[in-house]
Design a protein that fits this description.
This protein has about 150 residues and is mainly alpha-helical. The protein is about 25% helix and about 5% strand. The protein contains three helices and two strands; from the N terminus they run E-E-H-H-H. It has helices at about 30-35, 85-105, 120-130, and strands at about 5-10, 15-20. The protein has a two-stranded antiparallel ribbon with strand order 1-2.
Protein backbone atom coordinates (compact mmCIF):
# COMPACT_ATOMS: atom_id res chain seq x y z
CA UNK A 1 0.00 0.00 0.00
CA UNK A 2 1.37 3.43 -0.92
CA UNK A 3 0.46 6.84 0.43
CA UNK A 4 1.79 10.07 -1.07
CA UNK A 5 3.56 12.53 1.20
CA UNK A 6 4.58 16.01 0.04
CA UNK A 7 7.17 18.33 1.55
CA UNK A 8 5.83 21.89 1.36
CA UNK A 9 7.88 24.99 2.18
CA UNK A 10 6.43 26.92 5.13
CA UNK A 11 7.44 30.20 3.51
CA UNK A 12 9.85 31.89 1.12
CA UNK A 13 12.40 32.88 3.75
CA UNK A 14 12.45 29.88 6.04
CA UNK A 15 14.05 26.44 5.70
CA UNK A 16 11.05 24.87 7.47
CA UNK A 17 8.96 22.28 5.64
CA UNK A 18 5.44 21.02 6.27
CA UNK A 19 4.98 17.29 5.76
CA UNK A 20 1.63 17.12 3.92
CA UNK A 21 -0.07 13.74 4.11
CA UNK A 22 1.74 12.62 7.27
CA UNK A 23 -0.39 11.88 10.32
CA UNK A 24 0.09 14.67 12.85
CA UNK A 25 -2.21 13.23 15.48
CA UNK A 26 0.52 10.98 16.80
CA UNK A 27 2.10 11.39 20.23
CA UNK A 28 5.11 13.72 20.16
CA UNK A 29 7.50 10.94 21.20
CA UNK A 30 6.68 9.01 17.98
CA UNK A 31 6.71 11.85 15.44
CA UNK A 32 10.46 12.23 14.92
CA UNK A 33 11.08 8.49 14.83
CA UNK A 34 8.37 8.00 12.21
CA UNK A 35 9.51 10.99 10.13
CA UNK A 36 12.97 9.44 10.00
CA UNK A 37 11.54 6.27 8.43
CA UNK A 38 10.66 8.27 5.30
CA UNK A 39 13.21 8.12 2.44
CA UNK A 40 15.26 11.33 2.42
CA UNK A 41 14.28 12.32 5.97
CA UNK A 42 16.50 9.86 7.84
CA UNK A 43 18.47 12.73 9.47
CA UNK A 44 15.69 15.31 9.74
CA UNK A 45 15.18 17.59 12.72
CA UNK A 46 11.82 18.22 14.35
CA UNK A 47 11.53 21.95 15.13
CA UNK A 48 8.21 21.62 16.92
CA UNK A 49 5.75 18.77 17.20
CA UNK A 50 2.75 18.69 14.92
CA UNK A 51 -0.76 18.52 16.28
CA UNK A 52 -4.16 17.37 15.16
CA UNK A 53 -7.46 19.14 15.49
CA UNK A 54 -10.31 16.79 16.17
CA UNK A 55 -13.91 17.71 15.59
CA UNK A 56 -17.26 16.13 14.94
CA UNK A 57 -18.74 16.18 11.48
CA UNK A 58 -21.85 15.17 9.63
CA UNK A 59 -21.33 12.75 6.73
CA UNK A 60 -21.53 14.89 3.58
CA UNK A 61 -23.23 12.09 1.65
CA UNK A 62 -26.31 13.30 3.56
CA UNK A 63 -26.22 16.37 1.29
CA UNK A 64 -27.05 16.96 -2.36
CA UNK A 65 -24.23 18.22 -4.60
CA UNK A 66 -25.62 21.73 -3.95
CA UNK A 67 -24.66 21.15 -0.27
CA UNK A 68 -28.31 21.33 0.75
CA UNK A 69 -29.18 18.57 3.20
CA UNK A 70 -31.36 15.79 1.87
CA UNK A 71 -33.47 15.80 5.01
CA UNK A 72 -34.15 19.53 5.46
CA UNK A 73 -34.85 21.78 2.47
CA UNK A 74 -33.05 25.13 2.82
CA UNK A 75 -30.35 23.86 5.23
CA UNK A 76 -26.84 23.89 3.74
CA UNK A 77 -23.60 22.52 5.19
CA UNK A 78 -20.02 23.44 4.32
CA UNK A 79 -16.42 23.23 5.55
CA UNK A 80 -15.33 21.18 8.54
CA UNK A 81 -18.92 20.29 9.29
CA UNK A 82 -18.76 18.17 6.11
CA UNK A 83 -15.61 16.41 7.29
CA UNK A 84 -13.13 18.29 5.14
CA UNK A 85 -9.87 19.92 6.08
CA UNK A 86 -8.05 22.73 4.37
CA UNK A 87 -8.71 26.34 3.47
CA UNK A 88 -9.45 25.66 -0.20
CA UNK A 89 -12.02 23.02 0.67
CA UNK A 90 -13.77 25.29 3.16
CA UNK A 91 -13.75 28.28 0.82
CA UNK A 92 -15.06 26.22 -2.11
CA UNK A 93 -17.89 24.78 -0.09
CA UNK A 94 -18.72 28.13 1.51
CA UNK A 95 -19.04 29.78 -1.90
CA UNK A 96 -21.31 27.06 -3.24
CA UNK A 97 -23.41 26.67 -0.08
CA UNK A 98 -23.80 30.45 0.24
CA UNK A 99 -24.76 30.83 -3.43
CA UNK A 100 -27.30 28.03 -3.16
CA UNK A 101 -28.74 29.24 0.14
CA UNK A 102 -29.33 32.66 -1.47
CA UNK A 103 -30.87 31.02 -4.55
CA UNK A 104 -33.10 28.81 -2.41
CA UNK A 105 -34.27 31.89 -0.43
CA UNK A 106 -35.25 33.48 -3.77
CA UNK A 107 -37.03 30.27 -4.80
CA UNK A 108 -34.54 29.66 -7.63
CA UNK A 109 -32.98 26.31 -8.56
CA UNK A 110 -29.71 25.47 -6.85
CA UNK A 111 -26.42 25.30 -8.75
CA UNK A 112 -24.60 21.98 -9.09
CA UNK A 113 -21.15 21.83 -10.65
CA UNK A 114 -20.47 18.58 -12.54
CA UNK A 115 -17.43 16.59 -11.45
CA UNK A 116 -15.59 17.09 -14.73
CA UNK A 117 -16.20 20.85 -14.80
CA UNK A 118 -13.92 22.09 -12.05
CA UNK A 119 -11.98 21.58 -8.83
CA UNK A 120 -15.12 22.49 -6.88
CA UNK A 121 -17.22 20.06 -8.94
CA UNK A 122 -14.80 17.23 -8.18
CA UNK A 123 -14.75 18.14 -4.48
CA UNK A 124 -18.55 18.22 -4.22
CA UNK A 125 -18.92 14.93 -6.08
CA UNK A 126 -16.39 13.21 -3.81
CA UNK A 127 -18.08 14.57 -0.69
CA UNK A 128 -21.65 13.62 -1.52
CA UNK A 129 -21.03 10.28 -3.26
CA UNK A 130 -18.38 8.69 -1.04
CA UNK A 131 -18.74 7.44 2.51
CA UNK A 132 -15.67 9.24 3.87
CA UNK A 133 -14.28 7.92 7.17
CA UNK A 134 -11.39 10.39 7.61
CA UNK A 135 -11.08 14.15 7.17
CA UNK A 136 -11.05 14.79 3.44
CA UNK A 137 -8.36 16.84 1.73
CA UNK A 138 -8.82 17.71 -1.93
CA UNK A 139 -5.78 17.07 -4.09
CA UNK A 140 -5.57 18.41 -7.63
CA UNK A 141 -4.66 14.91 -8.82
CA UNK A 142 -8.28 13.91 -8.11
CA UNK A 143 -9.58 16.36 -10.70
CA UNK A 144 -10.70 15.04 -14.04
CA UNK A 145 -9.64 17.24 -16.95
CA UNK A 146 -12.72 18.90 -18.42
CA UNK A 147 -13.49 17.58 -21.85
CA UNK A 148 -11.25 14.50 -21.66
Amino acid sequence: CQHQIFLEPEGRNTPELYVQGFSTGLPERLQLALLRTLPGLEACTLLRPAYAVEYDFLPAHQCHASLETKKFRGLFFSGQLNGTTGYEEAASQGLLAGLNAARRAQELDTVVLPRDSSYIGTLMDDLVTKDLREPYRMLTSRCVAAGS
